[in-house]
């Protein structure tokens, strides 16, 4: 059996798809009311009225959290892209990764199905 050569990657089309996906994610995240509820319920706990302007403290804490979240998400995106390219160029690694992850998820499913745990105390 002859080994197939991988098809060349169209980097321009790939970049366009990534940009569209990124735009979709940002749009969906901006329209998510759960984020607003999270900020309105958590940030007030860390505001000290005696330390100055309350609204400014809220915006500062929210800005710090958004900056940290964006940095973490960017690191995850870059890592995922690098791993995808690595696996795309090495079909053997891709098969091994799928087999290992399938086995892990199967074992978790068996564990959950056979769990005879006690209910939490009230």
Automatic annotation (TrEMBL):
Its main location: membrane. One of its GO terms (cellular component) is plasma membrane. It comes from the Bacteria. It is a multi-pass membrane protein. The keyword Mitochondrion does not apply. The chain crosses the membrane at residues 66-87. It is found in: Cell membrane. The keyword Transmembrane helix applies. Keywords: Cell membrane, Membrane, Transmembrane, Transmembrane helix. GO terms for molecular function: amino acid transmembrane transporter activity. This is Threonine/homoserine/homoserine lactone efflux protein.
């Amino acid at each position: 059996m002859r080994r197939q050569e991988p098809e060349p990657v169209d980097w321009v089309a790939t970049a366009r798809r990534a940009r569209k996906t990124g735009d979709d994610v940002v749009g969906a995240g901006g329209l998510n009311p759960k984020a607003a509820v999270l900020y309105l319920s958590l940030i007030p706990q860390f505001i000290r009225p005696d330390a100055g302007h309350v609204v400014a403290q809220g915006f500062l804490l929210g800005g710090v959290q958004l900056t940290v979240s964006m940095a973490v998400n960017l690191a995850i995106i870059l890592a995922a892209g690098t791993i995808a390219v690595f696996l795309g160029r090495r079909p053997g690694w891709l098969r091994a990764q799928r087999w290992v992850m399938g086995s892990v998820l199967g074992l978790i499913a068996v564990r959950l199905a056979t769990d005879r745990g006690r209910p939490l105390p009230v």
